[in-house]
Amino acid sequence: MKNQLKMSFDSLSENVGIARITAAAFSSQVDFTLSDIEEIKVAISEAVSNAVIHGYAETKGTIEMIMTLCDNYIEYVVSDQGAGIADVNLARQPAYSSMPERMGLGFVFMESFMDELEVKSTVGSGTMVRMIKKFDAKPVH
């Protein structure tokens, strides 16, 4: 581990943008392209939005985000103690949503834009989304 940032914030939609910007700033320690940074921001937005919308729905809770810079990847972990997901495999299917008015593409974006995606969830206890974005380790000039 070369660097780590931990933050927790209320499950408010206003905090999605703060999480996005923080992830982009943390990720800028690496020689990612602007496209990579945009993809990271989208993946973080989806993970945090899922926690706000599905994890806590009409209630208020806390979301934790931990970003860890390692030798050749950054790990992003977004977790909540909300409602949880009854069937993670089903939830990861394109166009599936427990809310019919939603597009159901959050996990699709996360999986497309990150190199690894792990989702652990327990109904009534919350969800943890772990994403990895790899990079080529280059020597410091």
TrEMBL record:
Gene Ontology biological-process annotations: negative regulation of sporulation resulting in formation of a cellular spore; sporulation resulting in formation of a cellular spore
Gene3D superfamilies given in the database record: Histidine kinase-like ATPase, C-terminal domain
Keywords of the record: ATP-binding, Kinase, Nucleotide-binding, Serine/threonine-protein kinase, Sporulation, Transferase
Superkingdom per UniProt: Bacteria
UniProt-recorded name of the protein: Anti-sigma F factor
SUPFAM superfamilies referenced in this protein's UniProt entry, alphabetically: ATPase domain of HSP90 chaperone/DNA topoisomerase II/histidine kinase (SSF55874)
Limits of the Histidine kinase/HSP90-like ATPase domain: 35-137
HAMAP family, sorted: Anti_sigma_F
GO molecular function: ATP binding; protein serine/threonine kinase activity; sigma factor antagonist activity
